Amino acid sequence: MENDNQPRWYALYTRSRAEKKVYTQLKEIGINAYLPLKREQRQWSDRKKWVEVPVISSYIFVRITPAQYREVFKAKGVVAYVAHKGQAVPIPDHEMEAMQRTVDNQFSFSVEADSLLKGEKVTITCGPLKGIQGEVADIKGTKKLYLRISHIGYMLVLNMDEVKKVGH
After folding, report:
1. Is 38 helix (H, G, I), strand (E, B) or coil?
2. Whether 158 contacts 109, CB under 8 Å
3. 2.30.110, 2.60.40, 2.30.30, 3.30.70: which CATH number matches 105-165?
4. CA 108 to CA 33: how far, in whole Å?
5. Around Cβ 12, how many Cβ atoms within 10 Å?
6. Domains 8-91 and 105-165 fall in the same CATH topology
7. CA 107 to chain centre
8. 8 Å CB contact between 137 and 147
9. How do residues 23-47 score in pLDDT, each as one tens digit?
10. Of residues 149 and 97, more confidently modeled
């Protein structure tokens, strides 16, 4: 945890399939929580049904101040913070904004990858993610851009219209 009193984003591990319950409990105790969901069609023996499932299993995101650090454990199903060397690792605001806008807008894009290199910092220049910055983690062909979400081991895979290198 940082020493300042500014709220920061953190990722929490939850028990398997407990994400929605944890989200509800966190909201009830006044914690700013984000649970990215996607719609999937599930097949039962007698029917098909559309359900909302977590985009990333066993993860939920919270924006908290240092004073709220221990409060998240009041929610049954919270296992631990995503941490490095015992310290909860904050997620940069721009990465959370990129994930929220990607999930909430449910869109796909194409990419101009010919001049981008792995590790470069980029800014998205059009569409719902305009202004979002990220690091190019990988490029597949000319259509997919992988934006890294720090410290949780996941990347957003985007088909982008246009990106530009930071500083250009």
Report:
1. strand
2. yes
3. 2.30.30
4. 25
5. 25
6. no
7. 15
8. yes
9. 999 999 999 999 988 887 888 888 8
10. 97
Domain chopping of the chain, boundaries = 8-91, 105-165
Residue type, 68: Q
pLDDT value, residue 41: 83
87 exposure class (CB count in 10 Å sphere: 0-12, 13-18, 19+): exposed
- Tokens linked to 11: 């990722």
- In CATH, the architecture of 8-91 is 2-Layer Sandwich (3.30)
The span from the CA of 81 to the CA of 84, in Å, is 9
Give the tokens for residue 49.
């049904």
Measuring CA to CA, which residue among 124, 103, 118 is closest to residue 148?
A: 118
**β strands within the chain, DSSP E:** 8-14, 32-34, 37-43, 48-54, 59-64, 78-81, 83-84, 87-88, 90-91, 121-124, 133-140, 144-149, 154-158, 163-165
Distance from C-alpha of 111 to C-alpha of 49, rounded to nearest angstrom:
33
Q: Classify 107 in phi/psi space as left (phi over 0), alpha (psi -120 to 50) or beta.
A: beta
Torsion sign over Cα 126, 132, 136, 138: negative
Asked if pLDDT for residue 10 goes beyond 50, the answer is yes
DSSP annotation of 68? G
